[in-house]
Hints:
The structure is a homodimer.
Chain A: E1 7-13, E2 22-27, E3 30-34, E4 50-53, H1 56-60, E5 65-69, H2 75-78, H3 81-87, E6 92-94, H4 96-106, E7 116-118, E8 124-127, E9 130-136, E10 145-151, E11 154-158, H5 176-185, E12 189-193, H6 206-219, E13 224-227, H7 233-245, E14 249-253, H8 255-266, E15 277-278, E16 291-295, H9 305-310, E17 324-327, H10 336-348, E18 352-354, H11 369-379, E19 383-387, H12 391-403, E20 418-422, E21 427-432, E22 437-441, E23 444-445, H13 450-462, E24 464-471, E25 478-487, H14 496-511, H15 522-540, E26 545-552
Parallel strand pairs in A: 3-5, 5-6, 6-7, 11-12, 12-19, 13-16, 13-17, 14-15, 14-16, 17-18, 24-26
Antiparallel strand pairs in A: 1-2, 1-20, 2-3, 4-22, 8-9, 9-10, 10-11, 20-21, 22-23, 24-25
Helix pairs in contact in A: 4-8, 5-11, 6-7, 11-12, 14-15
Amino acid sequence: MNKNNKLSIIPLGGLGEIGKNMTVFRYGDDMIILDAGLAFPEEDMLGIDLVIPDMSYISENKDKVRAVVLTHGHEDHIGSLFYLLRQVSVPVYGSKLTLGLVEGRLKEYDVAAPNLIPVAPGDSLTLGPFKVGFIRVNHSISDALGIYLKTPVGTVVHTGDFKIDQTPVDGKMIDIHKFAEMGNQGVLVLLSDSTNAERPGYTKSERTVTEALDEHFRSAKGRIILTTFASNVSRLQQAIQAACAYGRKVALLGRSMVTVVNKAVELGYMEIPEGTLIGAEEIGRYPDNQMLILTTGSQGEPMAALSRLAAKNHRSLQLTPGDTVLISANPIPGNERSVGRIIDSLMRLGVHVVYERASGIHASGHASQEELKLILNLVHPKFFIPVHGEHRMLRQHGKLANQTGVPKENVFIGENGHVFEFTAETGRFAGKVTAGKIFVDGLGVGDVGNIVIRDRRQLSQDGVLIVVVTLDKNRGCILDGPDIVSRGFVYVRDSEALIDEARNIVKNVLERFENQPITEWAPLKNGIREALVKYLFAKTGRRPMILPIIMDL
Amino acid sequence: MNKNNKLSIIPLGGLGEIGKNMTVFRYGDDMIILDAGLAFPEEDMLGIDLVIPDMSYISENKDKVRAVVLTHGHEDHIGSLFYLLRQVSVPVYGSKLTLGLVEGRLKEYDVAAPNLIPVAPGDSLTLGPFKVGFIRVNHSISDALGIYLKTPVGTVVHTGDFKIDQTPVDGKMIDIHKFAEMGNQGVLVLLSDSTNAERPGYTKSERTVTEALDEHFRSAKGRIILTTFASNVSRLQQAIQAACAYGRKVALLGRSMVTVVNKAVELGYMEIPEGTLIGAEEIGRYPDNQMLILTTGSQGEPMAALSRLAAKNHRSLQLTPGDTVLISANPIPGNERSVGRIIDSLMRLGVHVVYERASGIHASGHASQEELKLILNLVHPKFFIPVHGEHRMLRQHGKLANQTGVPKENVFIGENGHVFEFTAETGRFAGKVTAGKIFVDGLGVGDVGNIVIRDRRQLSQDGVLIVVVTLDKNRGCILDGPDIVSRGFVYVRDSEALIDEARNIVKNVLERFENQPITEWAPLKNGIREALVKYLFAKTGRRPMILPIIMDL
Lengths: 553, 553
């Protein structure tokens, strides 16, 4: 091994954002990729379905990639794997549940079945110059892993998404001994989850949710409808246990709820007593106080089951007064308004809705400040890179690291594409590689860029107005038209006078070009556009996109 | 006065929503309108500038309207006044600052100068069968009023937007004695602000902000940039006092900041010592530690001064490391992400940003649960209508009323347009009048409805594709085209093959109609549309709006 080789850590996603996590570890000519996530589009990314990391750096170095390692099965960690596997064909390591969820998604994508290799906490394996080991962590999905990476220059620890649950529901606590052991042996770099770095104190144990749920199950008189993230297997397990304790059957609503529960049961991450689970179509056969319905839509997603229930257009279930809806999740920032609207709609149906933070029926899956400091102290790394968070969260996490003794100059607040380079002694920012957002829209990956989005934005604001005219190109005179078609601009039936006048304006412009052969179209089109923009803005205060189309004979 | 007359209370806005507050009080043939606010569009109201209440009920009864009464100068209470005054020409009553803000806005609208009549707390006046009195309340704008309305069937109290600030900065506490006196005399109906009905405890006094601000002013080494709602006159006054105490000049950025401060100074609601205020262009002349800059944009509004500062494109100021930005406002639900992005951008500039709730530099302007209960207990009304809140907040406020002794059947959780009818003894839901949202888009009021919005939504998702062809209408053959123009669908330069094939598909459809006179266009256009939808979806997974336009000769 070349003594001059350095370890590079290159986040391609997840820094300065919550979402599309992906990190490259490179030593010489060997690379490992940790996680391959997606992000959901922001409100100004009109029409975009998903956002994935720009993987140019990986495709430029595809012969160096040894493996993909997944920490857990959430979309922001596995959702771009299928796009990544189009670039590189390498083994994929992850826990059993993670790989189960990956498998469930594979059929949606046109990608060859990858080589999926299950690992368990405590396992380790050698990948080129790296020895990769897996550490159990607690998170809002079962079977989540942190990793350590022994490299020729030193050890790297990456927490993955985690919290420290001292009383986990499944009894499987985060392996704090392993973090301590790593710290004792000496850690060069720690990368740690910053999602809740702004939140003081400790994150509540999942077990506190058990008690809160129990209370609501005890007092509910009608059906109970519980919504949470479909991937939150522990939460679903708790709800099912409560259902059994109070003699309720369980039905599942929503495609991802069905998929995840089946997969979790199949892999042994969830236990549902025989006869408990019924089909959605059987709900009507049981008395209201013997039903628990688990449903998707806790984030107010408009097409999810809970939205349909609130809007009274779900095909297999109608809510009625007496039903109780438990919203066992907090709205992700940006979703408050849509969740609020759903709660309001449910209440208008007379349904009892339990949703406040204070109700205790939700606990976050990410560590708060005291837990973050504990990990920092256990691992006491020489260098620290806060990951998995928006910029201000990374900064706050950086401050926590300073407080626990990591010197300021050893904390790297990065951006996607930054290269952090380490020797056994030193760490430094060593330039940038290509990184960014690739938009997935329908089947297109990366074909929608800023120009298309800018057009969509203009169309969304004031619509479009199309002017078509057929001209005699030799004499410049009008043969047919101008015809005007508009969409999203004004309600056409109420705007005849406006459109008639617009037509006259176009005619006036065309008159200027009459009686001469037309050699270029641009002056004519620009003339039409300018005259219409001016007229329409004066009359309506709006600026529709104006598209003049000239046919000629 | 007719013994059979009843009092009707008809909310036209503000129920089931935060925004566009407007309530009609009617007794026989006399009506008073309380507040005339606007709402900002929700994210799915594409291209809409403002939302105002449907005022059909008012225009159908315009001869009955005696007056408009305004509680305070926030947009959600005065922003649709200008549209209302196009319907009815009646006196407008409000406090001095409220009317000052109304006057400042009048010139933006094409409406005759209304008859603005200033009132002060303690005043009362007779308007037909109503005696209207004004009560001082605390809120996040100065000069806010609650009202009482003595009617032939009993007294109504409406709190307006309020909190109970026991230590207000201007020394002018809410007149709780008046609320107590009303309660003693007997109140038929109370209407009260539900904004914070879900929040336990008490809302902090504005004075607590003084201490927090002082600490940041004491420790700041460079310029201080403070952002809050421009209308929060007390907050701005506090910031200016802190500036004076620490020897800083004050500059204003943002149009509404300049307008409100000038108006507040002119009317005596704000005092700025001589020589303190400087022009934005003079900022550079003073050392950094002698500057306070007050700016708009606390809600992340993309065109406001703070967004421009964060994006480094403000024309009169460039932020530098060492500057401190104090965000003295909480994001309104729905704005968290845009505010978060601005904080991140500021931090990337090296600016110190103070923004957490915990920082103490903001206090809400609305009463929390303990204050709401206190008002309920002081007024102890026979009937209660929670107002100014989304449905779940109204419900929660209703529960608080039950807790303070208002029977369940006397609490009315309403919707906009509901008519609540009262005699001296009874209260009941008495049907509905027209109510709803009217969209303002540019100069158009109400001309954009669901069809236009639906088109904008489709355009925003996948863009538009226009097919134009000139046909010989007698022989059905193509004279020119088909030409295809698309916007917001694909990046055209990369999609030549797709568009070429689309053109062929159109030609194939047209062939079916060849060699015969064309008598109707619909089958031809539908044929084109169907063929293209199918092809484009198969190729791209997208569904652009397809507009076939046929010219004929």
